[in-house]
Write a structure and sequence with these properties.
Helices cover 44% and strands 18% of the residues. By secondary structure, it is of the alpha/beta class. It folds into two domains: 191 residues, Spore Coat Polysaccharide Biosynthesis Protein SpsA, Chain A (Alpha-Beta Complex), CATH 3.90.550; 75 residues, no CATH class. Helix 1 links the parallel strand 1 and strand 2. The two termini are 39 Å apart.
Length: 321
């Protein structure tokens, strides 16, 4: 196919998520044929048979097999470099894309040339709308989250924090950060902003990218006119506590890059505060609410593991990979 005629390039990074990946690819086969598309799957050395299954069931898909787990950002960049479309869609392997979703997103991007990145509304596995956007991390926003003020005062913009608990997700709106589960990126904007920062192994690469699109003058828009199903945790379910710690490491890395030494120190103190608050809160649930004991016990152990990791690392940046 002539590269100039490809509307969408779809890039899917996968790691030990065979069933989810196959479901995602099947859903993409059901998209509206008005758009010309190409699909690129980048596998990060899965050991569950994902590459063989993709080759067997989706011969039209371009498959890249990495020799090792290169991380989310670097694997996506491999796919982006191979892509030819006017727009590039980065879609997590555990996403189901309903018919018309890509067509509606494409139409919105065509009509709104100032938008550099677009993301649809996210439905979780329970059918509820889940958060897929954030405010840029600031000391105040992170403090609100650390002290659970964003949960205590839902609906308050002052206390909504990084997680934007005050945001009404029924309507399309420009936001600071679009989370990286499903992004449609304008190639023109990408060429000015650059690829994902490969120093982020997994997590926070989307926050960093959104910051760079913002500085370059491109809007990031949450699009309520289309939605997709996100199961969540397809890869992280293999080692949830390790992935949680990796998330903290990536957040610290973001602060080091964008906020300097003093800002990073302030953020580290908030991480300590947040995890201590969660140990106490979930510990109370474990003791006094039997129905929540299993989940609360896991979260206490997870926070304790995070605190132990922080205590072992001089800068809080020790890798768990």
């Amino acid at each position: 196919m002539d590269a100039s005629r490809i509307d969408l390039s779809i890039v899917i990074v996968t790691w030990n998520a065979k069933d989810y990946t196959l479901q995602c690819l099947k859903s993409l086969q059901q998209q509206d044929s008005k758009l010309s598309t190409e699909t690129i799957v980048v596998d990060n050395a899965s050991s569950d048979g994902t590459p063989d299954a993709v080759k067997r069931e989706f011969s039209q898909v371009r498959l890249v097999e990495n020799d090792s787990n290169l991380g989310f950002a670097k694997a996506n960049n491999i796919g982006i470099r191979l892509s030819k479309g006017k727009y590039i869609c980065l879609i997590n392997s555990d996403v189901i894309v309903p018919p018309e979703c890509l067509l509606r997103m494409h139409a919105y991007m065509e009509q709104n040339r100032e938008v550099g990145v677009l993301s649809p509304r996210m439905r979780g596995r329970n059918g509820q709308v889940d958060r897929s956007y954030m405010r840029f991390p600031t000391v105040w926003n992170c403090l609100c989250h650390s002290l659970a003020l964003d949960s205590l005062f839902k609906g308050s913009k002052a206390f909504g924090g990084t997680m934007m608990t005050d945001f009404k997700n029924e309507h399309t709106a420009e936001v600071d950060v679009l989370n990286g589960w499903f992004l449609m990126v304008r190639r023109e904007a990408l060429e000015k902003v650059g690829l994902l920062d490969e120093r982020f192994f997994i997590y926070s690469e989307d926050v960093d990218w959104s910051s760079r699109f913002h500085r370059a003058g491109w809007k990031r828009v949450y699009f309520a006119g289309a939605e997709a199903l996100h199961y969540g945790g397809a890869s992280s379910a293999n080692a949830p506590t390790q992935f949680y710690i990796e998330m903290q490491r990536a957040n610290i890395q973001f602060w080091e890059k964008h906020h300097g030494r003093i800002g990073t120190l302030a953020y580290l103190l908030m991480v300590w505060l947040r995890e201590v608050v969660r140990v106490l809160g979930h510990g109370a649930l474990y003791c006094f609410k039997g129905s929540a004991r299993h989940d609360a016990g896991f979260k206490v152990r997870r926070s304790l593991a995070c605190l132990w990791w922080l205590s072992r690392s001089r800068s809080g940046g020790a890798s768990v990979r």
